Fold this protein.
Amino acid sequence: MSTYVETEPTQNLEAFKGVKKVPYEEYFTSGHRTCEGCESAQFMRLLAKAAGPRTIVTGATGCMYVANTSYYSTPWGIPWMHTQLGAAGSSALGTAAALRALMRKGVFKKEPINVIAFCGDGGGADMGLAAISAALTQADYNLLIVLYDNESYANTGIQVSSTSPFGANSTFSTPGKLKRIMHNRWKKNVAGLMIAGHPTCNYVATVSTSYALQAMNAVRRALTIGGPTFIHCLNPCPKGWDFDPAAALELGNLAVNTGIWPLYEVEKGELKLYGKTREIAEGRFKRLPVADYLLKQGRFAHFTEEDLAYFQSQVDDMWNNWLVPGVIPLRKKAEAANPAAK
Amino acid sequence: MATLTAPPVKETRKFEEQEALITGSEAIAVACKLANVDVVTAYPIRPYDTVMNYISQLVADGELDCEFIVAEGEHSQFEIAKHASACGARVFCGSSGVGWMYAMEALTVTPALRIPMVALVGNRTLDDPGAFGVEHNDALSVRDLGWMLVWVDNAQEALDTALIAYRVAEDRRMFVPLAISCDGAFLTHSQSLVKVPAAEHVKKFLPRYDRGDLLLHPDNVISVAPQANEDWVMEIRRQNYEVTERACDVIREVYAEFERIFGRTYGNPFFEEYRTEDADVVLLGMGTLSTPVKVTIDKLRQQGKKVGFVRLRWFRPFAGKEIAKALERFQAIGVIERDLSLGSPDLSGVVATELRSAMYTHASTRPPVLDFLCGLGGREVTVEDVERITDLTFQAANGRPQPLTQWIGLRG
């Protein structure tokens, strides 16, 4: 592949070796209007800090657009441009292509400039999935697409997306007299999809703002490794999930500790689990019951014991029966049943 | 040296001050090469996409240095180009028919963002039912959004207009996208002799695209396209409106400059007049129907019928006052329309409806303006059709009222 694909040099962004080594400079600061306890905005702050000033960001429509860049203030201390709901992938490509052409033609000074496009779960897992997928096949371009997942179309007032958890209450999945569970879809495994589907994509990671250092370092790793890359961040949302804003950090922890949100990165085909996820996989930490996480959120207040048991069984299935838990849902059972695999 | 449009030939194509036998699509590809575009985004749909085939070959042969990206859909195709332009790249893009419609969200925001782009629309009938041939509704669908729209009817004009388009679109007073319409098949796929300008003339004519303080780059920390709401949208729209107030003057300036540098003149940029000097009635239309119309006019003139033709080039901006002043002296006007505007006043197509509006405001007379829906779905506009249209227009001129909208060339 290396002779057919030509990437430009990237910035060498070394991992922050601990919280105390994180620089003070903010490139996403005051000037937005997000909710108290908004973890998505926290992720914006972290990724901007991690990327630094030689960066261009494009942001798809969503909370991180409408609640962030209300004229005339802006929190962005780096160049930022709005893009359409389904256009995170294409905006990243267009930005990277322009920089590449104009540097090659001597119009711009040659230097590595980070290109980051963000989208929410609506813009990324739903509408803009094809554009992200296409961008991840374009191995010549250095770009990072980040999906901030608050598990709903939050900006439009909380509607389910394909990453909303099973059974979640939303304005499009309202529990009612006849149907308690209007959203019976299981959360789409977006990171796994990106890994399995794009063999030339160098880096895919799942992160959480409750693990801020890992989240920042994943961004720095993606930008350093080059080519098109993807990061999926889970972001507790006080408004959409219905919890006290002060509990945002705790909920992020619980998502990981219940095994619902595995933390991992795949770098050039090598999988590495992180923190509590690794401890769970290695049997050193027993997953907390999903009820500990779900019942702290008003969006699951209508859940019965039956609903909780079903949710638990799906998470158990992922950890017990997937070939690679949290990453690839091929069932181990199938492998055992196939004599040739032995 | 003649250039084939079939699978590419192996010899190097030299276009310096040469004549080439090329299609409308290839002419636009040649213009992109001369313009040294930076980023081209492609997605296949007939009949525009041969332009991307030609550009691919130019890139592969080292004749054009640009990023050539095949997108996964037209929405992405136009978004990639839009963002590349926002970052200072000269871009080229294009589509046809429902492909253009698939990009509609991207098409909407591009002029609103004041982002220059030159796009080829290979005019194609909108699905459904499926059809590959020409209709104009695809390009016309963006007419309210701030795109500039121009129709050409031959490959030379396609090439020249593409160069003019970059100069107009990238003028800081404009900074809006511009779509060049070439009738599907009839122009995209038919060859004629084209004089290809020399590269050094193009360099004089086309300065580098300079986005100035609107450039998205780490040296220029700006936030582009915030959420503005009722507080500020109206003032931002007003800026786009002022672009349209300037547009006709900028276009005139650029055509004059083109004539000065390339020695080729188009006269009035907004429309072409054919045998209108002493005409009693005049036909009006856009695109390649000009050929059967001119053939018919020559034939009818020999029979003593004084008919002329106005071929509209620029649809946006619509030079309404100029057109009305040019048409007011005729006894009747017959618009030949390759589009529909279902449910419009008198059920007329887009061109006739806009023309009547201009006439009502600026013409000192009130000649009948008849609309003839013809050549839809890629059906040919024949000499017989044009004869019938002319006859009906003369009837109106001679005091025999005609329905305002008629279908010509319909079966049964």
In short: Residues 271-407 of chain B form a domain with the Rossmann fold fold (CATH 3.40.50.920). The longest strand of chain B covers residues 117-123. The radius of gyration of chain B is 21 Å.
